[in-house]
């Protein structure tokens, strides 16, 4: 994926805020970002920025987890693995999503 100098500056800003730039092989058309147990995909937005593609996710076994309800509770699920969607994990994901969205806002 080719990125513009402006998009590279956004990625540097993310790194400065504690995010890691990572590759997710199944999503090679997107830039992956991760912090802690949470991750998101970023898509180029015109030539100047990046936007969140889909929804940020909690990682389950290194893969994007989907929050699901089961009769015995809420879980983050990926393939055959699942993790309980505890208040701490939900809070971590919410904070990750909010901080990522803030970091992607254009700067003056």
What is the average of the pLDDT values? 93
The DSSP helix count reads: 2
The global form is elongated
Biggest sheet statistics? 5 strands, antiparallel
Which runs of at least 5 residues are low in confidence (pLDDT < 50)?
A: none
Number of domain modules: 1
Strand content: 35-45%
Instruction: Assign the structural class, choosing from mainly alpha, mainly beta, alpha/beta, alpha+beta, or little secondary structure.
Output: alpha+beta
Q: What's the SSE pattern?
A: HEEEEEEEEH
Biggest sheet strand order reads 1-2-3-4-5
Instruction: Return Rg in Å.
Output: 15 Å
Number of strands: 8
What percentage of residues falls in helices of 4 or more residues? Answer: 25-40%
How far is the first residue's CA from the last residue's CA?
A: 26 Å
Task: Kindly describe this structure.
With 108 residues, the chain is α+β, with helices and mostly antiparallel strands. It has one domain. Helix content is 27%, strand content 42%. It is built from two helices and eight strands, in the order H-E-E-E-E-E-E-E-E-H. The strands form two sheets. The protein has a five-stranded antiparallel β-sheet with strand order 1-2-3-4-5, sandwiched between helices. A three-stranded antiparallel β-sheet has the order 6-7-8, with no helix packed on it. The protein is elongated, with a radius of gyration of 15 Å. The two termini are 26 Å apart. The mean pLDDT is 93.
């Amino acid at each position: 994926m080719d990125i513009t100098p402006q998009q590279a500056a956004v990625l540097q800003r993310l790194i400065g805020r504690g995010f890691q730039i990572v590759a997710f092989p199944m999503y090679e058309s997107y830039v992956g970002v991760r912090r802690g147990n949470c991750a998101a995909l970023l898509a180029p937005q015109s030539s100047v920025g990046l936007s969140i593609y889909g929804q940020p996710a909690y990682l389950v076994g290194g893969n994007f987890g989907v929050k699901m309800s089961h009769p015995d509770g809420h879980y983050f699920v990926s393939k055959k693995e699942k993790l309980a969607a505890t208040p701490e994990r939900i809070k971590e994901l919410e904070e990750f999503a909010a901080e990522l969205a803030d970091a992607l806002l254009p700067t003056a």
